[in-house]
Design goal:
Oligomer: heterodimer
Strand order of the largest sheet of chain B: 7-6-5-8-9
Strand content of chain A: 35-45%
Largest sheet of chain B: 5 strands, parallel
Number of strands of chain B: 9
CATH architecture of the largest domain in chain B: 3-Layer(aba) Sandwich
CATH superfamily of the largest domain in chain B: Aspartate/ornithine carbamoyltransferase
CATH topology of the largest domain in chain A: Alpha-Beta Plaits
CATH class of the largest domain in chain B: Alpha Beta
Largest interface: A-B, 22 and 20 residues
Number of domains of chain B: 2
CATH topology of the largest domain in chain B: Rossmann fold
Helix content of chain B: 25-40%
Structural class of chain B: alpha/beta
Strand order of the largest sheet of chain A: 2-3-1-4-5
Number of domains of chain A: 2
Distance between the termini of chain B: 11 Å
Helix content of chain A: 10-25%
Number of strands of chain A: 8
Radius of gyration of chain B: 19 Å
Number of helices of chain A: 2
CATH architecture of the largest domain in chain A: 2-Layer Sandwich
Chain lengths: ~140, ~300
């Protein structure tokens, strides 16, 4: 299967297999007007299988989302058909407004105006906990 | 602005200072009788409480201060839909310090983030209860003389028991404490508490059998299975009588064991145990007032009030 090469855009590579759709939702790519390609279960020497997302435009990505959902992915910026930059996300110290606390006892369940904030509790395990009630994300 | 939301907001040195102040208050109450004259404590109790609320109120009165507030969310403007942030901003106009109990976890933190006066977490849902922890630490220090090297058993509802989570967290900062976690399978400590112990390389044992571990314990911290934490009444009824401490069960315990309980108890400690010199839960309740006096003094002083 082939997808046209990109002239100006972004390739998000090395996404764990099965996570591309989740990233698509959390990065709010459905709101874009440019071409977006999602490749699932692409054979990979390093990962066995991986997902890839290709965007036909250079946009501002939410790096917190990338760091949280796919910390090992690589983001390649393409300009005039050439890869001009390769970046990797980092686990963010705080996640603001990305995910919601699921604890029914959390204050966020009754105070709608409160931002859902999660803090990195364990960098090695990539564990996040709600700032308010400390429930695991 | 300094607040007390989580017991870890205080260093162990600060906890030692608070214990020292509380002990001094016990020795010389008259010296503290006018320390808070002209000051007001707002007791914001969105959830019913007897011990904690009365203990805060008694603490402020014994420091010569006054208390305003409410003891039920139905009597507060939250019933009209006011946010916690707005409530605390408004209270800051009338009081010098606030103690907040809330049925939702994290509510006192939200208040502290917006408050112009010190906020003390007086219990938030099944999450934290740092002043109970200070009470427990003062009691252990007064009863045993030290923290290091103790074997501390926690028994009952270790899942929703916020006093348990806070006390384990606090004790995890001392040397060589062994934790014995006794609960039904359904009420085991949450993963974040176990993670904390694992991350610190501390020794802990989980069991469902109180009798088998009784002889090892220096402290036995009993807890009530709390009806208000269950969404399912059937599950509450099934688990509520899991552990009942009786004089018979204490036969294998150490002579210098100390039995603590944050109170109120339902039936998890038989009344016959009250006369055992090892039972110190009523002394513990009294200690709660003294440590809260010490805390109010510290936070008001740091706020420059």
């Amino acid at each position: 299967m082939t997808i046209d090469s990109i002239k100006n855009g972004i390739v998000i590579d090395h996404i764990p297999a099965g996570k591309a759709m989740l990233l698509y939702q959390y990065l709010k790519l459905d709101g874009l007007e440019c071409s977006v390609a999602l490749l699932k279960n692409v054979p990979s020497k390093k990962m066995g299988r991986k997902d890839i997302i290709k965007l036909d435009e250079v946009i501002d990505l939410n790096w917190d989302v990338l760091g949280y959902l796919a910390p090992d992915c690589t983001v390649n910026i393409i300009r005039e058909g050439e890869e001009v930059e390769k970046k990797r996300p980092e686990l963010p110290e705080r996640l603001v407004g990305v995910i919601a606390c699921k604890n029914p006892r959390c204050i966020t369940t009754i105070e709608q105006e409160l931002p859902h904030i999660f803090k990195l509790a364990n960098r090695q395990k990539g564990t996040y906990r709600c700032l308010y009630c400390e429930s695991k994300a | 602005m300094r607040h007390l939301i989580d017991i870890l907001d205080l260093t162990t040195a600060e906890i030692d200072e608070l214990i020292e102040t509380a002990n001094d208050i016990i020795q010389n109450p008259a010296a503290y009788a006018h320390k808070c004259e002209g000051k007001k404590l707002a007791a914001l109790f969105f959830e019913p409480s007897t011990r904690t609320r009365l203990s805060f109120e008694a603490a402020m009165y014994e420091l010569g201060g006054h208390v305003i507030g409410f003891s039920d969310a139905g009597n507060s403007s939250s019933a009209k839909g006011e946010s916690v942030a707005d409530t605390i901003k408004m209270i800051g106009c009338y009081a010098d310090i606030a103690a907040m109990r809330h049925f939702k976890e994290g509510a006192p933190l939200v208040a502290a983030m917006r408050s112009d006066i010190p906020v003390i977490n007086a219990g938030d849902g099944g999450h934290n209860h740092p002043t109970q922890t200070l009470t427990d630490l003062l009691t252990i220090k007064r009863e045993k003389g030290h923290f290091d090297g103790l074997t501390v058993g926690f028994c009952g509802d270790l899942k929703f028991g916020r006093t348990v989570h806070s006390l384990i967290t606090a004790l995890s900062r001392y040397e060589n404490i062994k934790f014995v976690l006794i609960s039904p399978q359904e009420l085991k400590v949450p993963s974040y508490v176990k993670d904390l112990l694992k991350d610190k390389g501390l020794t802990y044992k989980q069991t469902t059998d109180l009798d088998s571990v009784m002889p090892e314990l220096d402290i036995l911290y009993m807890t009530r299975v709390q009806r208000e934490r269950f969404f399912n009444e059937e599950e509450y009824l099934r688990l509520k009588d899991s552990y009942i401490l009786t004089p018979e069960k204490l036969k294998t315990a150490k002579e210098d064991l100390r039995i603590l309980h944050p109170l109120p108890r339902v039936n998890e400690i038989a009344v016959a145990v009250d006369d055992d010199p090892r039972a110190c839960y009523f002394r513990q309740a009294l200690n709660g007032k003294f440590i809260r006096m010490a805390l109010i003094l510290k936070l008001l002083e740091e706020a420059g009030k």
